Each structure stands twice: as structure tokens, then as C-alpha cells.
Amino acid sequence: MSAQDVLLRTGRFLRRSAATSGDLHTLRLAGGTEGDAFYRDRWSHDKVVRSTHGVNCTGSCSWKVYVKDGIITWETQETDYPSVGPDRPEYEPRGCPRGAAFSWYTYSPTRIRYPYARGVLVEMYAEARERLGDPVAAWAEVTGDPEKRRAYQRARGRGGLVRVSWDLAAEMVAAAHVHTISAYGPDRIAGFSPIPAMSMVSHAIGSRFVSLLGGTMLSFYDWYADLPVASPQVFGDQTDVPESADWWDAAYLMMWGSNVPVTRTPDAHWMAEARYRGQKVVVVSPDFSDAAKFADEFLSVRPGTDGALAMAMGHVLLKEFFVERDTPSFTGYVKRFTDLPFLVRLERRDGRHVPGRFLTARDLGLQEEAAEWKTVLLSRNGRPVVPNGSAGFRWSESGKGRWNLDLGTDPKLTVMDDWSQAAEVLLPRFDGGEPVVRGVPVTRINGHLVTTVYDLLLAQYGVRRPGLPGDWPEGYEDAARPYTPAWQEPITGVPAERAARLAREFARTAEATGGRCMIIMGAGAAQWFHGDTIYRAFLSLLLLTGCQGRNGGGWAHYVGQEKCRPLAGWGVLASAADWVRPARMVPGTPFWYLHTGQWRYDRFDAGELASPVGPGVFRGRRTADLVAEAVRNGWMPMAPAFDRNPLELGEAADPVAYTREELRAGRLRYAAENPEDPRNWPRVLTLWRSNLFGSSAKGNEYFLHHLLGATSNLEHPDPEAASGKLDLLVTLDFRMTSSTVFSDVVLPAATWYEKHDLSSTDMHPFVHAFNPAISPPWETRTDFAAFHTIARAFSDLARERLGVRRDVVATAHQHDTPSELSHDREPALHVVERDYGAVAEQLAALGPLTERLGLPVKGVTFRPDEEVAWLGVRCGLVPRGVAKGRPELDTDAKACEAILALSGASNGRLAVQGFRELAERTGTDLSGLADEGHRIVFSDTQARPVHVSTSPEWSGKESPGRRYAPFTINVEHGKPWHTLTGRMHFFLDHDWMHEYGEALPVYRPPLDLAALFGESGRLRYLTPHSKWSIHSEYQDNLLMLSLSRGGPSIWMSDEDAARLGVADNDWVEAVNRNGVVVARAIVSHRMPPGTVYMYHAQDRLIDVPLSEATGRRGGIHNALTRVLIKPTHLIGGHAQLSYGFNYFGPTGNQRDELTTIRRRSQEVRY
Amino acid sequence: MRIMAQIAMVMNLDKCIGCHTCSVTCKQTWTNRPGVEYVWFNNVETRPGQGYPRRYEDQDRWRGGWTLDRKGRLQLRAGGRLRKLLTIFANPLLPSIQDYYEPWTYDYENLTRAPLSADVPVAPPRSLLSNQPTKIEWSANWDDDLGGDPSPDPVLAQVSEQVRLSFEEAYMFYLPRICEHCLNPSCVASCPSGALYKREEDGIVLVDQDRCRGWRMCVTGCPYKKVYFNHRTGKAEKCTFCFPRVEVGLPTVCSETCVGRLRYIGVLLYDADRVAEAAATPDERDLYEAQLDLFADPHDPVVAAAAQAAGLPAEWLEAARRSPVYDLVKRYRIALPLHPEYRTLPMVWYVPPLSPVVDALAGTGHDGEDAVNLFAAIDALRIPVSYLAGLFTAGDPAPVTAALRKLAAMRSYMRAVNLGRPPVLPPEAGMSEEDLAAMYRLLALAKYDERYVI
């Protein structure tokens, strides 16, 4: 025995209640729990409250918030989601590290505890208020005096915020609103708050206030570039995707431009688990991403070239599964559910032909109602047939009972037969070659030379059939001609053989499983200028293989696509449609494009990017001209609408006739035609649930300079453009962001653990509640309470000064309404009466239009008469005033109750009624889709997440026994898509689509910025979603900063770093013509050379030093990006190519950008 | 035979998405307080990578765990107890705070309080230790997603045949770590005050805060560096296996909040009399088998009787019978211990990550979905088997390959079922169809009440 053992053995006897193991290695202490009272005490708590995080994220995770001694301590996930079946994994637990770090904010030093306002502004306002004795006059003077105006605008973003009382803050905001409405018009007031689903009431209350005034709500989904424009183009739907539990049903899963573990953290387990079910997983991404770790195959594709790979896969698929052999399950599907059998007219151009419009009933000489919107196909015996289901049947009286997918015949996919002739068609290509000439079989109908979409598609994809003339690829190895596997290899970097093999595997799996192949597609593919073409190439793969509308199959677009499941109820509250209709809802991208002066920097011809075989309608024009044309045509709404106060137009005896006459006479102009005119500026902007200036503002420096009049990093701002348009920027938030530091007034918001609200998502089928764990601390208020405060202050000031007014509202041809089939080329005009003194009362009560006009949702109308009566009993009735006898909505909990009562997804009675109305139109039996007895009330959602039910608000079927997949109602019940043909579209026949050469799926490479803008940067600058934040939320959170690099960072490959002399963690500066970013480098071999990532939404407030290039604070990730409008997104009045808020509109795409990076001095100054 | 019960954990690395939710919920619950700002009872490492604290696996430097002396007897690598006692006032062999990381915060107050200035207010970083402005140079997760240079990874150094750190051959996976609650804990043996102890009833290793004198020998002794020094209280702290939760039947915070659903908690029965013998197994590559051998089959009547004799409550025995940990560790043998060569007999085990497999095959032109091809490809994984063996089996590739084969066989079998083809289970998988079905249920469906049996 050694000396040490002797010591130990002796020691044993000196110790009480402890046993030492025989080998002396272990000390065992029975009942040792007393010794650790510290941990036991730390675990104890007084209550646990269910809530969630109203951040712009699709998680919609239910959380337990722990409270001890009235203090929020921490949070862990709830695990009580209803089961989705015994044979599959469950949703528990949902959450991610960001959500888990949330409670840090509650008591953090970045918490906004009191109202603040810019000191210079407060001083000037208080002085004028004192002198003039009137808030509105004071506001008019301060903003009207150029020097005073300049003084506070220049101070934006430079500190000097002072604490003010809620009364003063509300008075200033109210005065600004009253003055703006009176001097310029209500549509000069704008509100921006994204993604209602993440906290429906908090969104709706502000949007409701803005809409009651006649102010403008700005869209976000398209602005974020999260809207996949291909979805309205192909499906006639905004975005409808499977819940993540449906990944489990997929037999083949491609993750394409989507980093699921990072961006869909709580859902990623479905992917990991489905692999154990034998699911094959393929990841396509430029970098070796977190998702690639799970892949059976990882394909590194060059950024922005994904479309080329998809086109080549489509080539293989068409050749091997359509032309070389018939695959009955595929052809049967495309005949019934896509536009492939429909006939297209060919037009002469340059001695050859180009595709024109769909052949319609009118072209057949039929005189019936809406004949020009009824498309035609060939019956089995070759006769033209006008099948049911096209848009012409949707809105016409005679179409009643015929808007369905009954073909009445087995249509021919091709016009090719032994006697058919061929025509040479010119097809554009954009990868550097001349247009190709390829033959399609043709026939002549009623004098029109026609072919089918299918025939055009084969020509476009370069799939040769014997007997057709033209320039065709020799085989898969032909690299010179699109779209062969060999052609894509030098573009994408993916070996030709792999592209072909993947296509084959994909199709074979789809064939074997009845369409259970899924493509999860994301921002990496969507957010390019030509992202819609990339997506259409993806969707083609799914449509051709019959995967759409199937459980476990189809597209799964997961980028900012939150689903506000109780849609109708939220919609009526948010647009104040219970009191006034219509609301002003304007697409964000063109709004910012015009009002931040970015349009002035597009110095190239709008025809520059057009097709060489297009009609040439863009030539000689600028993109801003096309925006103005879209507004004039009534394709897109814009704010302001006119260069005059719409209340002034409302003073005419017949405001609509007067407005039309003034327009015709040229005395009244569209504001979009001259965004620099001070009469046409937006004047007041309110942000809540949003950090526009630290996150989504593409062209951030242009925003700062032109919109705010603040100092920016713009090297050469256009001296002729306006600077400092906004009179007032207000932000409600609970933490400091770029938006708050640039705001004139900052209001302290309650956090998500301090209020009632509702949350839902498309990733799971549940609705669940926010509940207050504590009351809003310090002087913070919920968004609900804050807007009521503002509304009361506003109404008090407005009652006398504004009174009751008539407002002329211009709206665009609206999708899912009869106006989507309009030949008018002007906006519709409506007169809306506004009782400005009653806004606060209206805000707090459910108005009478709810049941009087019903709730329109996607072409059907809910009639909630019983529900309004129920709400009156549940919530109480307003005792007096303009809302006398109406249900009260004076608390956030009552607003939750109203949203659930007025939506089909949460109220089976409305869903059944909606389906009954829909069935009258389709003439088919839709009973049984919804259950009249299904009903969710607010307390249900407080108890645990509750399953929603099938409703006409959405396209898929769902129930506790059925996972949600989109378009299952269409496929299983023959209900048409909301498109021109009523089917999913490969072909888009609008003139502007032809002008851009995108009538058919096509490959378009990333923009050549050197040619367009003279950009000298060479590194591809991408801004994917971050692992450590949800947009700008959490990127300032100490826990997230501790787990990441603790400040702004740019990922680059080890090769690029070596070339630039940059070591890991070195300070670098990234510059281009738009701005400058200062960050630290993360050098990694998982990055492909030539591409750098600056993860999204790293705000300028944390650890951002002064730039060496400009001497000023470095910018946010969007300092290097800017808005680029794609004209085809402006099209309107053409069935699915019609405006809808967040449904269709130009995207704020930002991935085509380049930068130059250099190592800077490592001595940084702040 | 002396049967004792241990509450243990298995983490399925094949499912880990590296999200760090576990780290955050653990930190929020236990260590977001002064003195332990730098402490993460639970952390997640990207591998290859240096880890936290930096290069903790380099025992030549840190001298954690056990070795065998010339007589083949177990001895703390940092030196015997006498040596410890004699040098108790000297600085123990510890990672410096820079090896963990110097915790920081930011001047957030500037954002609201900044007076009217020349530029946008900003919150620069400030050390939480010195309260001075700082540049952030290292953190608990510095090499996240292969950021920086992973080549100092001590395990990588052992994978001598090929070090693949190029874009074309990039690979990574995540390794979440908590205290191993070892059967033969070197931290406990290192403590001069007897403050560290292993709980009799469930084997959780704890620090008695009343007894701890802050000698920090436990920090040295733990080869996983999972005992931390609270610089405010001057005492050691460590993962408690959330004993206040486990005692009332709740899983640990890190487990319940794991959104990858990759953690399993269950009871293992083992023969306490043979612990020292197993830990002293001469060849370190045999340690895995030796430790497996300690685990008693709860369905065995002899074991049940012994457990009863040892005073084990009946419900513990029942829990042991339903233990997912027992199934994954012993029955299917797909979970492996982390660094068995440290001889501490760790009780947090890992299912090695399988993917991507077919990717490697695609280059060879084989059909990657064929089971036979899959087996052949396991040696061609993007993640080298030798690297996994360096982590889990003291370098022996055989147990790793066997585990991966089972995972591959399950996928291949289930794919056939999924596509409506007749499934085939190759004998090389080394398991029955019944076991495959049960394993599938545990790994794929992973229902809450089957993940956590406490």
C-alpha cells in the first residue's frame, strides 16, 4: 500500500455519512442532496406561463416562461403539441437557441424603458407649442421651417435622444398625423410592420389604426424578396407549402438553396428522422452548409446558377419520361392539372415565329361571356375544346357550376401527328448565345396557327423529336446548346453525369411513390433578380412528375412565408374593413424604390435585360417609367396616389368623376410620375415589430440619405434628388435598433412575455397563445395599448380640425376578385367616408361592415352574422358613441377572440359556409371538407396549441389525421387553381413576359453588375440567414454574441483570405458603390472561393467601428445592396398576374451583388 | 456482484443540427450569473475543431483522467494524491481563462444615452472580467461551422493518414457535451477536500458547495474539462444532471429542450465491484468492451435479484428495463463512449454520425442506395471513420464501423419499405429485423416518453 492510500484510508474515518469505494477512487455520499440547496433553490419558481416569440420567424414555438418573485428567469419549450400520429415523430419540442435566449432582453441594458424623442426636435416643438398654443400648428411650423426641419433631420441617428412622457410623445405623433392628413393627405402616412402570423393582434392594431386614417400599409413579403413570384405565376397563390411533419412523407428530399438546420431549426428534426425512413436527402448549396452535413449527396453549385441545373434536370426528365417512353402517371397528371395541353397562338417575327397568347374561346369565334379568358385545348380526336375551370368561368354568371377541373375529354398533349406541320420558333437564351431556332408541330384553328404548351416546352428544353426542324442538342454531352446536362456543367460546376442521375432518381422515385418527391427551396435560390425563373425551373420538375398537391411531395418554399392561419379574422381587423373599405395596401419594393431615390441610380435602359425576340416595349425607357406605367394602368397601387390631397378630391360633388376628369385634363398627376416633388413625399412613417433600418432596407445608405436626410456612407449622392422626405419617423420597440436610433420618437414596447396575442405558422398546424408572464415593466406598453394611446390623442386633435371627410382611394385590379380580368388600363376609384374624431372608438370596436358586407377571402365571402352576435356576448357591447351596440375590442385578449371567431381555420361554421359558396361556383361536391363543429376559442390556445381545420382560406386539407400539403383540395376535388387556365402554369402569355423572354421556364444568369452599374467588385456578396439571430432580432443578444464571433462578421474561403492577406478574425472592410461594411473575417474551408457571406441583419449598433474608407460608422449588411425592380413583377389585371398585397409585386432581391474586400488597419476606433 | 444504478444519457450525433439550444437553456437555467459567465455546463462543438476549452483533449498537456502505472494500476494522470497534497498550494495544471474565453459584454447603454454626436451610437465590447474595452478573440464556440482553422484539433492530429480540410472534402458534425458523470470519475478522486461526490442513488457527480475549498484539482483531474471554477465564490461548479428535475421525473433541461430530439435519458445497472477492474483494462482499445461488460441486463433474473438485494427500488428496475440508453448502448451497440481512453468510464454516450454516405459513393459510380454498396462505402465516408474512432473508441475503427453499418442497414431497409419494395436485411448488419424495427422506433419516431425514461 502506498503512502497516499494510507492517507486516504485514514481520511475515510474522519468523514461523516460518506462511503469511499473499495478502490478509493470514489467517494459516495448518500442523501447528499442537502449539500446542494443552491441548485435546488435556483430551480424553484412561482409560476410557468405559456408564451412565444413574436419575431419574424416561422417557428411559432410554444414556450414555458418561468417566473420567480415577479421576475422572468428563463424559458424552456413546451412539449404539449397534439400528436400528429403514432407512426411518426412529434412536433415537441419546438424552439431554437435564439428563442431560448429571449428572456435576456427583459432586463437587459438595451431594453427601452421609457418614451424617447430627439432632443432638438423636442425643444423646437415645445417652444412652438408654448408660443402657438396648439400641437398641430407647432408641428406644422417645425416641419415647415426649412432650417428647423434640417436641424432635426440631420440629427437622426446621432444620439441625443431624451426621455419624454407618454403624453408628450403621443401628442407629437398625433399632431404629425393630423397635420399630414390635412396638409398633404392621409396616404402620406405609412405604416410598416411585417408578418402578422408571428403576433396577429400586435400587427393588426397598428395596421387597423393606419387604415382607419386612410394611411398606407406597406407590404413586406415581396419587399423582403421572400415572396417567390413564381408562386403567383405558376399557382395563382401567394405561397402555400407543406407543414414540416409532411417532410416525413417524402421519399426524396432536395434542400435547394435552403439551410434547414439554421433557418428552420425546430423543424430540422423531421428531415433527420425521415432519413431513417429511407428518405434520400440531396443538398444543393454553394457552401458546405449545416444542411449538407445531413445530405446523401451534396452538390456545390455556383451562386445564382441553380436554374441551369434545374433546367438540365428538366431536359433529362422530359426526354426520358415523356418522349422516349410514356409515363402514364406523369402524363395523366400534367393533362389534368397543368396548362401543358392548352393551345398557344404563334406570331410571326423576323421571318420566323414566336409564342404569343393562349388561344381562347373568343379566337374560336365564340361570343359567350368572358370568352377571352377561356383557354382552349384539343380533344382526343383533335377538335378544339373549351374545358371548364379557366378564369373565364370563375367570375362570369354563366360560369357558375363550371369552374372545375373536369376536362370532358382526354386532351392531346401535343398537336404532333402524322399530318402536322412544323413551325420554327425563336426562343431566347440568356447564357451568352443567340436565340435558338427550334421547330414545333403546329395546326391551324379558326385561322390561328397554334401549338401546345407542351410542344413549346420540349422546344424550350431542347428535347428533340424526330421530324422537327431546328437547332437541337446532339445528346446529353452537347455542351453548346441549352439545356443539356453538359451545357450546365461549366455554368454550375455540377458534373453533367450527376445532374442527369439526380433527375432520373427524382423521377423514378416520384413514379414509384405517386409523387412523394419534395424540394425544400429557399432564399439561396429565391432572392436573385431572376429568382422567379430559378423557381419556375424547380417547379417544373415537380409539376412534370406529378408531385404537387400530394402529401410528401411538391415545393416547400420556406423563406419568410409565415401563414396567418386564421386569415379572414386577422384580415378584417388589420384592414379595419369592419368600418371602412378599401384599405390602402401598397407594394413595398416600388414604394421604397421611388421614395428613397434609388430609381435615380438606375441609369441603364429598361430594355437592357429584355429578350432579343421580344416586342421591344421597354426600349428607350427607364425602370421608373415602367413603375409609373404600372400605377397608371391600375396594375399596382402606389402611395401617395396623386399629387393632390385625396380629401380635397373628395370634396367634389362626385369625387370619382371629378378625379377622372382632372386626370384626363392633366391637372391631376399620379405621384409615381414625380417622386421628387415635395407634394408626393411620404411624410410620416411608423414602424412596429420591425427594424427596417437595421435589417430589410436594401440600399440602406440611400434610405438614410434620401428618405431621412441623415448622414450616410453614400460616396456620390445624387445632388438633384430630394433628401429628408420624412417629417416623422416613429418606432415602437423593446430594444435599441437602427430604426430606433434614427427615429424621431421612440416608444417603449412590451415584450412577447408581457401581452396577449396569437401565433401560427405554416410549419405546423396549430394556433397558440401569448400570455403575459409579467405586466409590462417601467413605462412600456403593448403595441395594442400604445396604438390606443396614439389613437385617443389623435381623435382628440382631429375631431375639430379634420371632422368627417370623404377620401378618394385608388386601387389596382385585385387578384381573386372579378377585377383580375380587367381590360381597363386605369385604377379603380372609391370614395371612403372617414370620421376622424371617431378613430379611437372605431379602433376599439368591431364595426358593422363585418356582417353587412361579409369577409372576402380568396374569392369566397364569409358571412359571420352569428359570430358577431357571439362576440357581442363574449366581449360585451359598446354602450355609447359611434360604435354603440357593437362588440368591444378594447383588450388584446378580445381581439384574439375576434380573430379566431371570424376565421374558417378556427371556426368550422364559417369554413363550411365558405365551401358551400365555393361549391356553387365549382359545381362539385365540397361538403365534408370542413367540420361545422370545429371551433377554437382563445382560452383553448392558452391551454395548449390547438389544431386548425380545413378552410377555403387555404388550398390544402388538414385534420388531426392528415398532414397539411398545399393544393390537395385542387388535386383531390378538382378545384381549379386561381390562374388563367385554372391549372398550374408553365406558360405565361402576358406581353411583358414575352418582352423579358420568360414566357416559358428559362435560365437567366445573375446580373452583370459591371455592365449595368460599372461595379468593380469581384467577390459575390451573399447575405444568407444567420445562425445566431432571427433577422436583426437576437444579433444584439449577449448569449448569441457569446456563442458566435461577438459582432459583425464576413465568412470567406481560406483561398480568398490568403489572396487578400486576411487572417481569421482580422478586421476587414467590404465596399461597393452602395456603401461600406466593417466586420471581422471568419476564414473557413467550408466556403467556396469567390463568394463571401455576410449573414443577414447584423445591425450597426454592436461592435461596429468607424470605417477607414469613409471615416463614418460602418453600415449594415444591406449597406452593400440596393433595390432592383424586375418589370415583369409589375404586371397586373391578367388573371394570376394581378396585384395582391404581399401576393404579387416586385421583390427586393439582393443577391446579385458584388463587393471588394480589403484588410484594414487592425486598430479600430468607435 | 454489487448492482448499482446510474442515470445516463445517449446523444445521437446523426441527428444533431448544432443549434446550441441545449447550451442556451442550460446556461439560462444554471450559469447566467457572476462568477460563471464563461461557464457552459453544456456546450456544443463543431468537429473537427479545437473545442472548449481550447484543445481540452490534449491530455499530454492538461493531464486529465487516469493512466496505468507500471504495475498496471490506475493512477491519476496529473499525479498521485500525495503529489497533489504536497503541491496543494501550487498552481494546479489548469486551462487559463483565455483557453476557455474571456467573457464580455457591450456598452449597450450608449445606444439610448449617447448625447448628440458626430456618428451613430454604438456598443463596443467590454471585458466582464477587467471591465476594460476588449477585442473579442476567442469564445466557447469559436470554431462553429468550421470557422477559423480546425487543424489544432488534437483528435485530428491522430488521424494521421489524411487530413482533409479542403472545400472539396469538407466534413463536419456537432458534438454536444455535458459532464460525463463517470463511473470512475477522476475529478472526484482529485479533490483534496472530498467535496466532489457521486450520488449513491443515481450516480450523478456533484460538488458539495459547503465542502469545496476551491483547490481546483478537480478541474485538472477532469479530462473533459467539465468542472469549472466560479471565480466569484471561489468554488467548483459543474453540470448537476439537473438533479432537482431528474428527482421529480423530468428530463434534464438540455434534453427536454433539444430540438434535434437526439438525447435519451435512462437508467443503467452496473456491477460496482468491477468498476476499477474495467477502468484498469490494459489495452485502451478494450476499454469500450470492458465498460459494456459492466452493464447488467435488467431482464436477467439474477441481476434483478442482486438489484433488489442492493436496495434498488422496484421502479428503478422497471425503468432500467425500459431504458433507451440500455438499448442504444448495449442491445444495439450503436452508442459509443466519448474518449474511453481517459479511463473514467464516461456515462454520456454517442451514436456516431452516418452521413453523408452516398455522396462518397457517387464519385465511384455505384448506386448509393444499395445496401451492399452502402456497407462498402462506410470506409469512404466524408467523415473519416478514423476520426470518429479517435473520439469514441480509442482509435479502434471496428465498433464505429459496426454502429454505422447498422444505421446504414436501417435506412436501406426502410427505404425499400417506403418505396414498396421487398426489404432486405443483409447479415453484415449484425442485427435481427425485430431489433431493426425497435431501433427505428427509438431513433426515428423518438416519442417523448420513450426518449426519457427516468
Automatic annotation (TrEMBL), chain A:
Residues 46-110 form the 4Fe-4S Mo/W bis-MGD-type domain. Gene3D superfamilies: 3.40.50.12440. Pfam families: Molybdopterin, Molydop_binding. It catalyses: nitrate + a quinol = a quinone + nitrite + H2O. It is a peripheral membrane protein. Belongs to the prokaryotic molybdopterin-containing oxidoreductase family. NCBIfam families: narG. This is nitrate reductase (quinone). It comes from Nonomuraea bangladeshensis.
